[in-house]
Write a structure and sequence with these properties.
The structure is a single chain. By secondary structure, the chain is α+β, with helices and mostly antiparallel strands. It is built from four helices and five strands, in the order H-H-E-H-E-E-E-E-H. The chain has a five-stranded mixed beta sheet with strand order 1-5-4-3-2. Helix 2 (about 25-35) packs antiparallel against helix 3 (about 50-65). The longest helix has 17 residues, at about 5-20.
Length: about 140
């Protein structure tokens, strides 16, 4: 049986995914401001020099530029204590520069798993594993 905190934390992740799936940078930025501690610890590849919530905003700026139609389909959400585990399938069409690659027009589908730790109802720490290898293969940057 889920505790009230676990239910609330899952709902926060759901609202964040809904914001991301709008494809609207302003809505995503606002969702980050609402759900994420400014000093969030982000354990995933992020741009040099960016930390905390600003790093997360930068990641979404890059993703929206590269994949304006990006969509996150949630496959699993598991909540226990102060952590939420989230597994998703991400799809998008490569229409802008991404990781040094000019737009290819190719569609990508890749998986990701994130663990979010909450403190005071907000995201305080994020660990992420994104299948960048598959993403790069589909974009033609790595031979199949």
């Amino acid at each position: 049986m889920s505790t009230a905190r676990e239910t609330t934390n899952k709902a926060t992740i759901s609202r964040f995914v809904n914001a991301v799936n709008t494809g609207d940078a302003e809505i995503i930025s606002k969702a980050i401001d609402e759900a994420v501690e400014p000093s969030v610890l982000f354990h995933a590849p992020v741009p040099a020099g960016a930390t905390g919530a600003q790093a997360l905003k930068h990641v979404w700026t890059v993703l929206l530029r590269a994949f304006p139609d990006i969509h996150v389909a949630v496959e699993d959400v598991i909540s226990e204590g102060d952590k939420v585990v989230f597994r998703a399938t991400v799809t998008g069409t490569h229409q802008g520069e991404y990781m040094g690659l000019p737009p290819t027009g190719k569609s990508v589908t890749y998986n990701e798993i994130f663990i979010f730790r909450f403190a005071g109802g907000r995201l305080a720490e994020i660990w992420g594993v994104v299948d960048v290898f598959s993403q790069m293969q589909q974009l033609g940057a790595i031979p199949a």
